[in-house]
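Same chain as my last thread, 136 residues:
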Amino acid sequence: MLLLALTLLLLGCKDPFDFEPHDPSLPNPPGPPILVYPEDGKKFKYDTPYPRDVTLKWNAVPGAEFYQVEIYRDSVLTEPNLYVPLINYVYAAQVTVSFRTYGFYYWRVRADSPRRWNALTDWSGVWVFALPNPTD
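reply #2:
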């Protein structure tokens, strides 16, 4: 028992039940959220100093209990390019994020409803927006 606890601690696993699959007796999830704002390719104008808040919006998925949002600094969607860790348990179809610097940001969303579906939805498409360099 002590060895199991030590192994979990060393591996950084906070809860061994985090990795349980959803209930396979539940139906498959619906399609992924559809992104709404900021539009793909949007270039913001410099009208406020950094940090700058941007509200990301998507269409609600019927039956979703919460959403997960990922924001990257590069179009290669890998962990080293994450701007912030996964934003989990977003209960509305939008979230406001504070950005500390200019550049391109790539974002996507998926929905979950563990009491209604057997898995998460697929990720939405990936959209990009640009925050301006204040010196330009």
